[in-house]
User: What shape does this take?
Amino acid sequence: LTMSYEPSAERAFASVEYIMRDVDFGWILRYMHSTGASAFFLVVYLHMFRGLLYGSYKAPRELIWLFGMAIFLALMAEAFLGYVLPWGQMSYWGAQVIISLFGAIPGIGEAIVEWVRGDYLISGITLNRFFALHVVAVPIVLLALVALHLLALHEVGSNNPDGVEIKKNKDENG
Assistant: This one.
């Protein structure tokens, strides 16, 4: 998708149309991308539900839970950034509403809004930033958070519905 997408306010929507109509199997790539993202969120929600059901947020697994919540927030940011990229009316106004929410933070809210936009208004600068964040920055953050999540899990072991601590009865040989 990145090979044919143009992250500019003038060409973003047209480039998505080009991908859908003119790129060989572009339509299936785009729909696999969006449907795959939705399916991934379904799996993430099931994983979170399992964690709640098994009490994985309790000691000694609090750090695993916190990394998991940070992963969830990064995934939500990734999904939002991807939603904005087609630069249609829904994308534009969705970005306007979500970015404006930062303005409700007392004292620094308006400065954050201007910093995120890159301008006083949502523009091509914002779209370009969102593209870079969606394709490069947030995935790197996600990889780091997943690595930390797995390292924390490795330290205390996985949780299970029986309440058996799998690392409790281990000797030096495992």
